[in-house]
Structures are given as structure tokens and as C-alpha cells.
Amino acid sequence: MISPSSPPPLPASKTVSTVLGPVPLHTIGLTDAHNHVWINPPAGVAPGAPVLNDYGASLRELLLFHQAGGRALLDFQPYGCGRDARLLRQLARESGVHLITCTGFHLRKYYPPESPLWELSTEAASELFIREITLGTEETLSERDPAPVQAGFIKAACEATLEASPRHLFEAAACAARQTGAMVAVHTEKGASAEQIVDFFHRQGLPPTRLMLCHIDKRPDPLLHQELARAGVLLEYDTFFRPQYHPEERLWPLLEAMGKADLCGSIALATDLADLSMWASTGKGPGLASLPLIIRAHLLERGFNPAEVQAMLGENVLQRLAG
């Protein structure tokens, strides 16, 4: 870890595209880099898909997050598999939390068999992603909403391997990112294919500085993480409250190794609690507020200085979102 210091001020002129419109980057604060606050799966989705469709519970959880010091959250549910940007906008207004929604695509299992997304051409999919970023999400545009909600980033979901993933949709995500300047956040299956994903986007003309690799802490190889970070990739960690991934033996030592390598500027922290049982308002889980309350405290206890903590708990991902 570096010596304690005050973090440099964030650029006052840059903005982040939230569900309530653009917000100055420097005014936002602590941000959960990967989560879900509303998922209402469409009919036909296979059993087992996450469900978060209790508006009152979502609002209570966001209010707890805000009361604890949380100020923003990236919602990772894209169009066609349970997103409702209209409700995200309402939740943001009532909770005071800046919500940033995404365009792009999730794993195929989260869509009904008849979903048209998988039959789109690369060009048509790219046009969809660009439209959701520049004009508004499909559900707000279709209702001629006077203030359509714009997506703030592009999600691309990698299956067990990159080869098993929809190449045309990955190409569409790269094209949309090139044209809009949006960040691409890639769902990985326990960090698999990380190197191939970065190489794919590089060959598509998108540098590593425009990428965030999600759930990469499930593959806790410090040398790999340091290589990716030095190449410019933002690494998202979120297994703090998932005992099956042994965070005390894997995630926390990984974080400390990255800190010693002076690479805290390449990490974005999250909790990814897409399960009501893991929310404080509905179950016995840590809840969204665990990021500002528990994780922040543990970082400071383990020797990370305030500037590093501030970077990992918001600044790094916000800077990528702002371009």
C-alpha cells in the first residue's frame, strides 16, 4: 500500500449517465460496482433465475445503503431478462441512490427460448446497444417517455468459455463501445477466459482501459491480476460474503497483494447480492449496506489508506463510466 494521502479531486467536467440523467462525476461518492436491485424474469425463463421483484424490499435495501454512506450502484440486469428501467428510475428518486443501468446481454439461460436477441445480426444488436446508451432504454422509448432512461455501460456475458459465447453479440458490444465511448463490463464464469476476452476486445479496436472484468476474484491468481491491471483492465471483486469462495483465504490476500503492487487503482469492489436472502431488509444477509459499513472498515483495518479505499469503493469505476 502507498503512504496515506488525500486522493486527487475528480474532474469536475465529467459526468456519469444515471437513470435520472447525467450526474457530475466528482459529486457521487461510494459506489457498488456490481449489483442487482430489480429482476423480474420474463415468462419462459428456466427455473432458478434470480428474482428481485418486490419493490418495497428493493427500496428498503437501497435506503439502508444510502444511510450507511452508499451513493451509487451499477445495476447489471440488461434488457430482455428482467430489467425495468422505469422502476430503477423510481427507486433512485425515492432512495437518493444514483443507479446506473446497462445495455448489452446476460447469459443465455436468463432469457426465454423465444427471445429475439440471439437472432439479431451483429449490426442490429450494435444498433440496439447504441440506442439504449444514446437515446434511451427500450422500455422507456417504447412508451414515448418524456425523459427516457439511458444506459450507462454495456454488459457482455461470457459463458464457460469465450468460444461458447455469442461472438456476434461480443462484436456488437465492441462496436457500440467504440461508437459511444461506453465501458464494457464482462461477466466471467469464475474468471475463465479472462486473457482471451481482453485479447478479443483489443482485436476489435477496444483497449483494455475500456474494460471491466467481473467476478475475476473467483480466480485469485495475483500474477494474472497484476498483468491484467498493468495492461489497463479494471478488475471487479465481489465474493466478500460468499463462503464457498473462501474470501478470507483467497479474496483478502489477493487484495493485499494488489495493494503491495500499488495496483489499487485497477480494482472496483462490489457485493453482487442478487438474492433476497442476502439482503438485510428481507433476510439475514449482509445487505447492500455491507459495502460502506463492513468492507470499508475491513480495508482500513488491513492497512489500506483512505485514498486507496476511496479509489476501490467508487472512484475507479466512476472514472471508467465517465470515459
Automatic annotation (TrEMBL):
Q: What is this protein called?
A: Phosphotriesterase
Name the protein family: Belongs to the metallo-dependent hydrolases superfamily. Phosphotriesterase family.
Return the PROSITE patterns for the record. Answer: PHOSPHOTRIESTERASE_2 (PS51347)
Q: Which UniProt keywords apply?
A: Hydrolase, Metal-binding
Tell me which residues bear N6-carboxylysine: K155
* Classification via InterPro entries: Metal_Hydrolase, Phosphotriesterase
Q: Does the keyword Transport apply?
A: no
Short name of one Pfam family: PTE
The protein's matches in Gene3D superfamilies, at most eight in alphabetical order, are given as: Metal-dependent hydrolases
Q: One GO MF term, please?
A: zinc ion binding
